[in-house]
Design brief:
30 helices, Serine Threonine Protein Phosphatase 5, Tetratricopeptide repeat
Length: 643
């Protein structure tokens, strides 16, 4: 018996000292018949802080039954309110409401207590977060503060103050809301509050700072919150702190650590709060999308959706990166149409601007940018936009100006965005602005300035591991090699034909030739890069498509009553593409041109390397070697039988 008492005392003592895991293990080893309702309540708290929600609910239900059976209405109401919050967090709203109604009933006729304040606090949070009735919520938070003063409970007062601060920000009273958040968070830092209240205050403060773009303040409070999390002997609820830490890490550019934190947060939170867990998976998707891990991002966005969060605008930006512009525009537009709260619209509008421009819809882009700027201006602090919000507006404006060929205006906007993102300390966003600034400078003819910005952007993207952005920037710098099949066509003896036919007939013959060749290249899925005198330079994704185009060209010309003889050469290899004019360059292109020049009248000549084991479906000649100008070694080629 003495040993049991010693163990029970140890469990109670550990709970009193907030050594939750120790307390949980001690309670778990005890005979349940020896526990009082108060012990079951402590057991539930220990389980909750140890990340075991199901166990916490079970022990709290036992505590409720014990208090209720003993006629202790106030204690039973206290536990009922806690169970209401437990079930609300996991999305069991009907069960949550049932426990809340039970608490209200039990408190009827009892002297005013902390539990009465918790009832009003819950009503205030519901009015703000679920009903969207912000004036009502503010009145209820004020009422909670007064109850907290009368019953002498500091936690109640500070929780209500924090809730009022968040509601004021949602209402547009940013400066007053942030001031109240700072006051509430200072109380948490000083250790005035119980653990649950401390965590709640930190979470609301950090969320509000993110919402209004005050990244510096968000980072400062995130550091304070995580010091508390790391020092406390807890898990579960602190997953929220880890998620905030992941967001800051992602913004600061430490993507591997950010993803690790976000994954850990989701594991800790999955039984505690569906909404926050869904947000965690969305954050994982955002990190993976930026890294170019499309499959991983798709998986994370899908999980976020399963947990109750519409994964926008992330999924729309993923579709844009995949080249599915119409799908991206439809998704972004639909998601925005379902959101009314300005802060949530603010998060989606920049993506809509980018996607609309890609879709060529300037009207949608301008409308989204105008709304974005209006919302940002309503969240000024000290009469000024926060750097993050200001950068977002200028980046959106710059995209539109670039699309409309206002290169001077675009350069000014992107330069401002670059400077503001640098102030925030966001390397990825800064690099994005620098890449776009480089493009704007190039378009207005400042190649030297463009190179400086693009070099800086590339270095940042490579350091971050932003694969697609890195490739895009390398392409702009003319450094990204692409493997394509390049095809050259040329009319044989064009000078003799011109002399024979005369100018007028030659022009008509050439126009018909050009029409036929362009059509056959396009029909085969190729791209006409440019005209080359009396011929064409085209590129294809595959050798087979290039050969099919070449055969179609020769057959189409053969069906004409009068048509020039054409020689065609093709080669598959690496090349660079210029952003300024879309032309290709490099050894692969030069070799294709030389092979074309080596072909005879009516011949289709390929490098043997181009075939590479790919079946093209046409008869081929025996290989032969050609000595080509500019190439030291002979090149093996084959001729395609097209007749």
């Amino acid at each position: 018996m003495s040993q049991v008492i010693d163990s029970l005392d140890a469990a109670r003592d550990a709970a009193a000292r907030q050594l939750w895991r120790t307390s949980y293990e001690a309670f778990s080893s005890l005979d349940r018949s020896t526990l009082t309702p108060a012990d079951f309540e402590l057991f539930g708290d220990a389980a909750w802080w140890s990340g075991k929600l199901e166990e916490a609910i079970k022990q709290r239900e036992r505590a409720y039954a014990g208090f209720s059976g003993a006629g202790d209405k106030q204690a039973a109401a206290r536990v009922a309110l806690t169970l209401s919050w437990d079930h609300e967090g996991r999305g069991a709203y009907a069960v949550s409401q049932g426990w809340f109604a039970t608490a209200v009933r039990l408190l009827e006729g009892l002297p005013e207590s902390i539990e009465h304040g918790r009832v009003v606090l819950t009503q205030a949070l519901t009015a703000a977060m679920a009903e969207g009735d912000l004036p009502k919520a503010i009145d209820l938070f004020d009422e909670t503060i007064e109850v907290g003063k009368r019953v002498g409970d500091r936690d109640l007062q500070i929780l209500a103050l924090s809730g009022k601060a968040r509601t004021l920000i949602m209402k547009g009273d940013v400066e007053q809301g942030l001031a109240l958040h700072d006051e509430a968070s200072a109380a948490a830092v000083c250790g005035e509050l119980k653990p649950f209240s401390t965590g709640m205050v930190y979470c609301m403060t950090i969320s509000s700072c993110h919402d209004v773009g005050d990244i510096r303040r968000a980072a400062e409070w995130t550091e304070a919150a995580n010091r508390w999390c790391d020092e406390a002997d807890v898990s579960g609820f602190p997953g929220t702190c880890r998620l905030h830490r992941a967001e800051i890490m992602r913004l600061r550019g430490d993507w591997p650590a950010a993803e690790q934190q976000a994954v850990a947060a989701c594991e800790e939170l999955r039984d505690f709060d569906r909404h926050i867990t869904a947000g965690g998976y969305y954050e994982i998707g955002e990190i993976r999308r930026r890294r170019g891990d499309f499959a991983g991002a798709e998986e994370a966005y899908g999980t976020a959706n399963e947990w109750g969060k519409i994964p926008q605008p992330g999924i729309a930006l993923l579709r844009l990166a995949e080249g599915k512009v119409d799908s991206a525009l439809a998704g972004a537009s639909q998601a925005l149409g379902e959101v009314e709260e300005p802060i949530l619209r603010l998060r989606a509008l920049p993506a809509l601007v980018e996607i609309a421009i890609a879709a060529g819809d300037q009207r949608i882009a301008r409308s989204a940018a105008d709304e974005l700027e209006g919302i940002v201006d309503s969240y000024k602090i000290g009469g000024r936009r926060t750097p993050a919000f200001d950068a977002t507006v200028h980046l959106a404006r710059g995209r539109i100006e670039l699309a409309e060929k206002d290169f001077d205006g675009a350069a000014r906007s992107f330069r401002r965005a670059r400077e503001e993102w640098q102030r925030v300390g966001a390397p990825y966003e800064t690099a994005q602005a620098r890449m776009l600034l480089g493009l704007a400078l190039r378009r207005r003819g400042d190649e030297q300035g463009a190179t400086v910005e693009l070099e800086g952007a590339l270095a940042a993207f490579e350091r971050l591991g932003a694969k697609l952005d890195s490739e895009r920037t390398q392409e702009l710098l003319g450094r990204l090699q692409t493997r394509r099949t390049f095809l050259f066509t040329d009319i044989v003896d064009s000078t003799r034909l011109l002399e024979t036919l005369g100018d007028d007939k030659w022009r008509r013959l050439l126009a018909r030739h050009d029409e036929l060749v362009r059509e056959r290249i396009t029909e085969a899925g190729g791209e006409v890069v440019k005209k080359t005198g009396d011929g064409f330079f085209a590129s294809f994704e595959s050798p087979r498509a290039a050969v099919e185009a070449a055969v179609a060209i020769q057959r189409a010309l053969g069906d004409e009553i009068v048509a020039p003889d054409v020689r065609i050469g093709a080669h598959t290899g690496e090349a660079f593409r210029s952003e300024s004019d879309g032309d290709f360059g490099g050894q692969g292109v030069h070799l294709a041109a030389r092979i074309g020049a080596a072909a005879g009248a009516g011949e289709i000549l390929l490098s043997a390397e181009t075939l590479g084991g790919v079946g093209i479906g046409f008869r081929l000649s025996e290989p032969r070697t050609e000595t080509l100008k500019g190439f030291a070694e002979p090149v093996e080629v084959v001729s395609v039988g097209w007749r």
